[in-house]
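Lecture 7 notes: from sequence to structure.

We start with a single chain of 343 residues. Read the sequence below before looking at the structure.
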Amino acid sequence: MGWSLLIRVGCMAAVMGMALVWRPSGLGPAADAFLGLAVALLALWGGHRMQAVPLSHIGGALLGGALTLPVAQSLGDALLAAGGGDPRVSFLQAVVRLLGPALGFSLGWQHGQWLEPARLLSQFRAAAPERHYKILDTSVIIDGRIADLCQTGFLEGTLVIPQFVLRELQNVADSTDASRRNRGRRGLDILQKIQKMADTDVLISDLEFPEVREVDLKLIELARRLPGSIVTNDLNLNKVAQVRGVPVLNINELANALKPVALPGELMRVAILKEGKEPNQGVAYLDDGTMVVVDHARRMIGRTVDISVTSVLQTSAGKMIFGRLHEAPAPQGPVAVSTSDGH
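Now the structure, written as tokens:
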């Protein structure tokens, strides 16, 4: 920090000294010194603002301005030669020479991402198969089910793990809270497990977006840049990405879609674990975590019973099954037949 401040002060002193030597204002030493100080402060302020701009945008702007400058110069010379001393032609010539490079600078700034190495290399690999990128966020890594999904082979393409996600995982793993620390270490273990899978292509992305602070927004920008899909189980990230037109693969939605369908009237065996919210209700859970609410089963807590499904409710958190105790029909004994004589 000290060296940076020293360099800035030296730059301001140098510019003020040059202003005092060349006297650009013509109004005296004080005015020249003030003009030099203003120019130096403006340049330093611009340099500070440019620190948050990706180099690809700066390079694109310079390249666009450099390419359009000779074109604008040639058009201006042609107009000058054709129009002679006509003031309207002279004005048009000045406009072309000024706005031509400005237009190239603006276009280069907006499309500077095409100068990024990944984009340039992709132009020379057009014949190669297109890579499908799946960008993992912190929540889905800590969740752990992504590793099981990779083992099945259903998740195709390249898994992208951004550096800013790795830093967030490391911060969670270094937390003073024991629960957060365990979750962070679990996420790092899951990443190591995925990297060791022979059939899984993993890419650590170094793309950073310093102008974006939130990790969720960084993920969206990265998905646009590659392009790719975000793999998550974060409901908020899911909604924001969909609003911004970025495809999302939600692990929770996949798990809910794969849960077996229970139809009304179907019989199933469950273990009643606790009482429900309503009187006399009992609550059980299937192997996949689906909650089963059973009427008049409070007295069956701790026992395994047969139930009959009455209805299935689909919620944002998954499916809920409602049922009632299934009672086997009473065995029918022999039927007595009466005769007309009463015997």
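The two ends are 115 Å apart (CA to CA). Keep this in mind for problem set 3.
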